Amino acid sequence: MLRAVKLTPLDLQQKTFRKVTLGGLDEREVRAWLDLVATQLEELTRKLNRQDEELRRREARINEFKDREQLLQQTLTTTQKVAEEMKVNARKEVENIISGAELQAEKIIANAQARRMQLVGEIEELKRARAAFVQQLQALLDQHKAMLDHMRPEPQKEEPPAADNVSFLAPPVNKKK
Predict the structure, then answer these.
(1) How many angstroms separate the CA atoms of 67 and 23, rounded?
(2) Angstrom distance (rounded) from CA 145 to CA 139
(3) Other Cβ atoms closer than 10 A to 41
(4) pLDDT means per 10 residues in the chain (177 residues)?
(5) Which end of the chain has fewer CB atoms at under 10 Å, N or C?
(6) Backbone angles phi, psi at 8, to 5 degrees
């Protein structure tokens, strides 16, 4: 029997068999050779199958990683788009808030100025009313004074004091001391 040797393609091409009588080959030697070739071929086939399976597993793993990478890339792209949209929306919202606040401030200022003008007008009206009242009061006072002056009798000549007319009623006065 032949020993188990690693066969190479060259071994297979150059193998020669002993010739036996009648020009044939030694059947046992051919059988042993075929068994050796079959064994190694079977071993190589199993090894090739294992390597194919390992290759398929690794390719599947690589494809899985590629799918994950693609998913991560899509997620990153989507996240960047969403973040950019959020920035744009936030800017728009801030601009809207600022515009609204400016409009509201302008309204408040306009209302305050209108109220101020109204109050200034009212103050001026009150000043005019006060001046008119003071003028009317002064005229009334002047009129009443004139009436009082007219009602007073004119001063007459001096009359003797009333005390002399009644002096006889007074108790006597002692002039001694």
Answers:
(1) 65
(2) 10
(3) 13
(4) 64 73 77 83 89 96 96 96 96 96 96 96 96 96 91 70 58 61
(5) C
(6) -115, 165
What is the number of helices (H) and of strands (E) in the chain?
3, 0
3-class DSSP string for 42-71: HHHHHHHHHHHHHHHHHHHHHHHHHHHHHH
Q: Map out the domains of the chain as residue ranges.
A: 14-149
Determine contact, residues 15/33, Cβ cutoff 8 Å: yes
Distance CA 36, CA 40 (A): 6
Give dist(CA 60, CA 76) in Å, integer. Answer: 24
pTM of the model: 0.42
DSSP states along 17-45: --B-GGG-B-HHHHHHHHHHHHHHHHHHH
